[in-house]
Write a structure and sequence with these properties.
alpha+beta
Amino acid sequence: MRNAAAASGAAIAPVANVRNVGNASNVRNASDISNAGTGAAGVPEVKPTSGGSYGRASVPLNMTRPVPPAPEAGKREGGDARPPGGGAAAATSDGDRLVEAAPVRKSRIKLVSVLSVVILLALVAAVGLVVRPGPVDGWLGAEAESSPSVAPPSPDPTPTPVLAAAEAGGATPDTAAVQEALDPLVNSSVLGNEVHVSVLDAATSTSLYAKNAEVPTTPASTTKLLTAAAALAARGPAYRLTTRVVAGENPGEVVIIGAGDPTMSVDKNQLFPGAARLDKLAELVKNALGGTAATRVFVDMSLYEGPETATGWGSSDIGDGQVARIQPFMTNGGRIEPVHNDFGGDPRYSNPANAAGKLFAEYLGVTASVKAGTAPKLAESTGASAAPGASAPAETGWTPGKELGKVDSPPLVQIVDWMLQQSDNVLAEAVARQVPLAAGKVASFDSTAEAMIAKLKELGLPAEEANLYDGSGLSRHNGISPNMLVQTLALAANGSNADLSALFNGLPVAGWSGTLRTRFVTPSPNQSAQGIVRAKTGTLSGVNTLAGVLITKDGRVLVFAIMAVGGASAIAARAGLDKIAARLVACGC
């Protein structure tokens, strides 16, 4: 439970281009965590899956939308759209129909063949074998699969802009005209019997439209906007999560310390490109052990405290793959395979820390069961007294608490991008817990909610209009007002806080990426907003929300939040939300 003062609205800075891109208690100490809910002695095999790149370098108009299955009662938004990563073969211009050529002389055939090879080699030299969207590869530090045998290719091309930059000038839209344009859409029956709306001119902080604007309602996954803002303000975009392994109390025992990095990959088959890798960490540990064989793996999960599921989560959320138990050590967000499904949930381990611990033990050649435990303390400098309770170095030279290896996550801003693009609930909870940890407080659901409200209030936002129980929006106990959401977006957009401005890179773009990739298609007038609206979606049973930023045809940047409760059809309600945003884009108000 938990609360803040209106944000200022200075001159708008151009929005950045998209970068391609049931409660269970924690297990502690020396109990066997393999008995904490896995239900199986082994770990399901993680099958190789291509990670894919996030986004495309240009914005084709999305004219057709795959029809998703109708949501079942009680279903949540499960991070429901991974930007396509490729893999499908492109059709030829002739519809894949082979056209038989007329006979030609052999000399001509040879000449054409030679010319084709020359042209192909020239193209390869110019752009490389694989062209990736510009910022991704270098920014994420992705590893090359092999060393080039020829001169390196020219720099990757810069992707074309997705969201148009705000133009200088242009009059602030007329409030009465905006109301006249939006009222019929806001009052549509498809949205249900309770609609909360706020529209703000970002440059002047002028309220253009308000309906129940300061009244909190169920936000669903638009909660993640507050999570992103609070975490970026608390840690900064460049912060990385470091997973460490230290020597245990006895020779051969190793302790992996959960750092709250849910993006860690098992191996090179990564769901999150550039993520830390469990197999690489195991290599570091084996090298550090030298001639000492690893005998047992312990997992230190002391970073998080309290229940592993939030108040207000449904009993089937974990079983349906919408989320996993929130633990500080896992791989691929707790997924059994590194795959994100566009619709529905992703199968998760019942005990992510145990599963990841077993995989790590397997890499080390350890056959003993994985257990929970606390990492030994180690004096930080030569000559310093050993920490209370720490064991003295063994005669063999074994030093309990000595670091054996560590790996770093991608920067926090990239994790936030993935969280927003895919609406990933596990990533959201991990990102949210960085807020209390940055303040030196324990990381539980309650302390996280309190720390987030405090940080948002510190930013000058009306945090008294927010009541949080989690960071993902799965909890139906959450309440956020549209005004709180638009004030947060306006603060991020006005250029006064560079850390907050980073959240726009991860927002899905209409008709192009993330959870908006297949939206703004029907009815046809909605297509005018494709590539223009950048927003976070939210869906629970009977709840549909949309909050983000757009640019009108007159070049004005507007921030908006639309929150509807009670709609009978989620598909119809989402189309109704899209109509409102598209109308704002087209508004000559």
